[in-house]
User: What shape does this take?
Amino acid sequence: MMKIGMLTSGGDCQSLNASMRGVAKALYENLKDVEIIGFLEGYKGLMYGNYKNMEPRDFSGILTEGGTIIGTSRQPFKLMGVPDEKGQDKVKLMKDTYKKLKLECLVILGGNGTHKTANLLREQGLNVVTLPKTIDNDIYGTDITFGFQSAVNIASNAIDCIHTTAASHGRVFIVEVMGHKVGWLTLHAGIASGADIILLPEIPYDIDKVVDAINKRTKEGKRFSILAVAEGAISKEDAALTKKELKKKKAKSIYPSVSYEIGARINEKTGQEIRVTIPGHTQRGGSPCPYDRVLSTRFGAAAANLILNKEYGYMVGMKNGEIVKVPLGEVAGKLKVVDPNSSVIKEAKLIGISFGD
Ligand code: F6P
Assistant: This one.
C-alpha cells in the first residue's frame, strides 16, 4: 500500500480541484494499491493531523469546480520557525504526522510561500512533489501557473464591462487588478481588454506621464480613458524610498488602495471625473477556464508520474509548451516578475498603451 498525502496551501484559485483530480486519477489508474490522504486547510492539517481519507469518488465531478475540496489557509513561511500557541515546533509537528501516517510522499499545491515551506520539508528529508498554483503567475521556474488564465478572463471581463459605461459617461476609470507584488495579471487583462494605460509594480509610474496619456486621448476626441492598475503599482517617488520609509508613508495614507491615490492625483491635475472599480477576490473565484483545466490535468498527471518514478523534490512546471520538473531548491524564495524590456511590453507600447514611464 502506497500512502500519498495531499494539501492545498495559501490563497485559493480556480483550478486547484482540477489539478488534484489530475494527480489522483493518474495514481488510481497506474497503482494497484494507493491511498490518498487529504490534509485539511493546508499545512495546518499536516501539523495537527487533520485529514480525510480520500476515495476515488471524491475526485469525480470536480474538474470544473472552483476553490479546493480540502480547504486551504495561509501559514506564512516566516512564522514556520515560531512555535504555535502551545509552544510546539511547527516543522516537527508536520514531520511527525508524515512519519506517523507512513506517507510515501506529499503532494503540495501552492504559490511562493507554500514553495518555501515545501522546500524546507524536503530539506528535512520528506519526499515532496509540488504543483504551481496562483492567479499571480509569479512562481519561478514555470512559464505559467494554473489559476492565472482563469483570473485573466475575469479581470478582462471586468474591464470590458467598464468600457461601455466609461464610453457613455466620458469618465476616467481605474480598474485595480490583483497580482500581489507582480504585474502579470494586470498586463494580460489590460492588453486583452484594451486598457489605455497599464500600471505595473515592475515599471514605476510618473503621474505626469499618466496625465499626459489621458490628455492626449482627450485631445484626440476620446471621451474616456481606462487604466488597468496592479494592486502593487508604485510611483517613481515611492520606488525611490527605502522599505521602512515606504511602510511609514503607507501607514499614514488616507487612501484605501493605490488606485484611489492615483485617481485623486489625476483628478487634481486634469479636473476629470474619476471612478475606481476593484474586482478583488472575484478574480480567484468561479470555474476554471478550459485552458486551466488542460494545464491542471497535465500538471497533475506529470506530478503523479514523478511519484510513479519515485522522483522527489521537484515542482512540475511548463517551459515553452512542454512539461518540465524543476528542483524545489531552485524555485523556493525566487519571484518571477515582468521584465520591463520584454517584447510583450514593447508591443503594447507600439500600439500606444502607456505604462506611465
Ligand atoms: O496570491 C493571490 C492573491 O489573490 C494576490 O493576488 C492578492 O494580493 C492576495 O492573494 C490576497 O490575499 P488574501 O486572500 O489573503 O486577501
In short: The first helix runs from residue 16 to 30. The first strand starts at residue 2 and ends at 8.
